Amino acid sequence: MEFETLLNKVLEEPKIEDCCKLLEKANSFERARKLLDLASKIRDEKVGRILKLDSFVYPVKKCVMEKYCIYCSNYVEKLRLEPLSLEEFRTAIDFIKDCGMKRVTLEGGYNPDNSKIPNFIVMAKKSGLETILDIYPISQSELRAFKALGVSEIYSSLEIPDSKLFSHFKPEESFEKRLELAKEVCRNKIGLSSTIMIGLPNTGYEIWIKGLFMLREFECLKHCAISSFNPVYGTPLQNAEPLSPVSVAKFVAIARILLPDKDISACGSVGLQSLPLMLLAGANRAYLGAYVCRARTPKGFAEELEDVFKPDYEAKVRNGLVFANPSEAVERICRDFGFEVG
Ligand code: SF4
């Protein structure tokens, strides 16, 4: 089948098999460009040429898994981070607000203790920020309480949309429980955010696309975050190769075709430098707003930071926390590209 015929078929009557074929065939400059152009046009028509910037605070909870997910930095003991105290969280929110951000995501690892979360939500809401929760697990009563406090989106990430593979990469978690939380988020009429992981070894188009088809069933879905596997030293997957930014962009384009009016972002192995490519592929959201996280070293993330070239944006370490604001660099990209930042 001609590439354009396949593209139209996926657009009009999408099937997992055809989406896989489309990605396989989008392997020349002309075909990849056709796929990205279509996705970009759909984004312009359905959600507009506006980039929604997300800011975040990490971690609001410490991950307390007995068996950590095998791709995660928490797998490596020295990389595990202590959660922010209430006072530190207040400083973080003040910084994010001062940077002119509109929304903040409270991010944390697996931990059944959500006792500090209501206070965090109240602080974030009081400062006028749209507040999003990316924590797990959440009980039904907590879900209702978080909604009453004004949370606008809650994550329940399908991540690896296959029960068996999910348990392989996340030995202590259950895919079915993730699905149940996503349904509960919808029953409570809260916006659903969900991450699909791409690029993990022994996973491929079929599984990733199956995740997008599953998300199409959730009418409260607001945001699909595509997280491209980023190998972490010290984990069992440290030697695996991440996907190229072009591969991620092509998957973003498929996500835009399948979820035309939803927010779509890409993260993980793709960062600020890949933002233009993600926008060309139909993305309209990015975790590139101001952020505050616990510092891993006195320099923030690593000891070996080069001091030769001026970085894209500054990350300052104060009292054990990293304060960073990529939003000005994002605005420069968007200005050059005719995108608004919202
Ligand atoms: S639950 Fe989340 S934070 Fe904890 S190990 Fe798994 S991916 Fe990492």
General description of the model:
With 342 residues, the chain is α/β, with parallel strands linked by helices. The protein has a single domain, classed as TIM Barrel (Alpha-Beta Barrel), CATH 3.20.20.70. Helices cover 39% and strands 19% of the residues. The protein contains twelve helices and 13 strands. The strands form two sheets. Strands 8-7-6-5-4-3-2-10-12-11 form a ten-stranded mixed sheet. Helix 4 links the parallel strand 2 and strand 3. Helix 1 packs antiparallel against helix 2, helix 2 crosses helix 9 and helix 4 runs parallel beside helix 5. The longest helix has 18 residues. The protein is globular, with a radius of gyration of 19 Å. The termini are far apart. Iron/sulfur cluster binds next to strand 3.
**What is the tally of helical segments?**
12
Strand portion, in percent?
15-25%
Coarse structural class: alpha/beta
Q: What is the level 1 CATH name?
A: Alpha Beta
Give, in spatial order, the strands making up the sheet with the most strands. 8-7-6-5-4-3-2-10-12-11
Largest sheet, strands/sense/barrel: 10 strands, mixed
* Total discrete domains: 1
Through-space gap between termini: 40 Å
Number of strands: 13
Question: At CATH's second level, what is the architecture?
Answer: Alpha-Beta Barrel
Backbone CA Rg: 19 Å
CATH homologous group name: Aldolase class I
Task: Kindly list the characteristics that best describe this protein.
ten-stranded mixed beta sheet, three-stranded parallel beta sheet, 13 strands, binds iron/sulfur cluster, 12 helices, alpha/beta, TIM Barrel, globular, 342 residues
